[in-house]
Every structure is written in C-alpha cells, then in structure tokens.
Amino acid sequence: MNSPPGSTAAIAADAWERAVASIDEAETVCLACHVCPDGDALGSMLAFAQALRVLGKPFTASFGDVFVVPRILRFLPGLDLLTDPGDYPAEPDVMVTFDAASRDRLGSLAANARKAREVIVLDHHASNTRFGTTHLVDPGAAATAAVTERLIDRLGVALTHDMALGLYVGLVTDTGSFKYAATTPEVHALAGRLLATGIRPELVAREVWDRAPFGYLPVLSAALGRATLEPDVAGGLGMVWTTVTRADRAASALPYDLLEGVIDVVRRTDEAEVAVVFKEDDEGAWQVSTRSKGRVDVGMACVALGGGGHPTAAGFTLHGEVRHAVERLRELLAEIEVVTRT
Ligand code: AMP
Ligand code: MN
Ligand code: MN
C-alpha cells in the first residue's frame, strides 16, 4: 500500500461507493463490533447507529456474547440502541463490522456474518483478514473511528454531539490520548471536528482513565508487586510482565472490566521494550495485553499465540498456564525482527 498513512486513498473509491450504495439500498442494516468491545469498537458502532437513525434506516446493533458493556464505556450515548446478540438476524442482508480484524473476533456473531449477503468490514488493523464483501480497511488510520467518520460523512449525515462522542472515545483510546505514533496531523484535525460539536475532553478523560473504585488500588498494588523484569528477552531489549488474578479482584470485589489501565502503568518500565499483563477473567481464562515501544512487533507474537492486534498494542486469550505462555513469548520475541534499534 503506497498511500500515505491516514489518507483516504488507502481505501479504494469503488469500495466507498459500494458501501454507501449497499447501505442506501438496504431495508435494514446489521451492525456488529468485536467481542469485549473497547472504546474504538463500541464508540464507532454507536456513532454509526446514530447516523442510521438520522437517516431513518432501521438497524440492529450488537456484539457477540458475553453481551455486557464494559463499565468504563457505560457513559457512551446510544447504549439504548443495542440489541441482545440472541435477537440478531441469523442471515443479515447487509452487515457492517467495526474494529474486527477477523471474523472470529465477532464471537457469537461470526456465524451471522458468515450467512450475511453483504459484509462491509470497517477497520484499521493491518492484519485484517478481509473477511467481508466490501472492505473499508485503512491500516494508516489511528482508529476505526476515523474510518467511521468518513463513512458517516459520505452518507451525508452531519455529526451530532452524541455521534462525535463515540468517535472521540474511539480516537482517544486507540491513540492512548494522542500519545502513540499514529497521532498524525489528520488525527488532531479529526479531534478538532469532533470537539467542535461540544465534546468536553476533560469529562471523557475522567470516565476513560482517571477514575476507579478504591478497590482498584490494592489490586494494582498486588499486580505491580509481582511484576517480573526479564532484561534478556527480545534480543536484550527487555520484557516486563505481571498477572492480575481472580483472587486479587475477589479480595477487593473489583470487576474484571476495570483492569484495562494496568498495562499503562506496567509499560512505563524503562528497562523493557515489551510489557505484558495477564488478566484472569471471571471464567478463569487469561486475557493478555501486550505493548511495545515501537521497536518490536508484539502483534506478530500475539497472532502466533492465537490473538492479534497492532505492532505496538496487541493481545490474545490464554486457556493454559501463564508460565507456558511467558516461555512462548520469550521464544517468539527472540525470533521477531527488531524494527529499529534507535
Ligand atoms: P488490549 O490490550 O485489550 O487493549 O488490546 C490491544 C489490541 O490487541 C486490541 O486493540 C486488539 O486489536 C488486539 N487484541 C486484544 N485481545 C485480542 C484477542 N484476544 N484476539 C485478537 N486481538 C486482540
Ligand atoms: Mn479494538
Ligand atoms: Mn481500533
């Protein structure tokens, strides 16, 4: 792909035209985002659902089981537009997916996507498997929210405050609050357009990052207290890893979905290029978050472990033992080419 990062040219003109025509012609449109949705997945889908409402187009919007909106996203406008995935059409005519790099990321709605006549895949993962019939995939986009804004614009819908809030949450979460390398001038231009609808950035930041119940502090303390630094991993660039167990959370009655910020503390470690947090969910599986500072592609390692993501932020689900996964990570990170050694 030769187009500059974040440019609309990454998506073919005919793909835009097909997507707009399909949505215009559809009697009803089915929306889905990836399981355990983050701000980008759910914010983009809810913004789009509200755009369809403005158009007067009937729709169904959902995400695969478990159908629980993460606590930190419960301030998003439009949650009332969601439908239980059990009530989702089995064979959608036109389906649009948000922030899902592969069909299996749709969880229980993957079966519906398989049966859909048309699937418009809206995403920004370079690893996207192009599982649809029309692909609005821009690996240069900082967030799926940026691609979603372009589609809303092409449908001729003016952004409302509530649509823009979903898109803004997607943009700030996927850029780490405008800190990651994907934060181009276009990202700030988009943020400017979104803010112009009346969004209060300080309120968004408080909801997304700057609040937690008191019980978060002992859980964070336990996780940080057992963090392990392995300086030799990744060709000497270093890895830091830790766990957050169900027992940690039970002691403070802390729900699983409040653990997203733990990786942001762990990844500060100067001595480690790679940071990994194993989070035990309520079913006993480990949801694993990985981050790199740009010199190692953790996305490749996570794909090898059955997950996916971006070069600097990726994850996978582990049903086995943490020590085995750490061992696999050591091996994979030894093999993965270091991008630059600045
Ligand atoms: P997280 O650490 O949960 O913030 O996830 C970082 C990124 O990794 C996400 O934006 C996804 O692109 C990807 N990711 C996380 N978990 C998985 C998974 N189980 N399977 C595939 N991709 C994942
Ligand atoms: Mn996502
Ligand atoms: Mn995203």
TrEMBL record:
The keyword Hydrolase applies. Keywords: Hydrolase. It comes from the Bacteria. Residues 259-335 form the DHHA1 domain. The keyword Hydrolase applies. Its EC number is 3.1.3.7. GO terms for molecular function: 3'(2'),5'-bisphosphate nucleotidase activity. Signal peptide: none annotated. Residues 29-170 form the DDH domain. This is Bifunctional oligoribonuclease/PAP phosphatase NrnA.
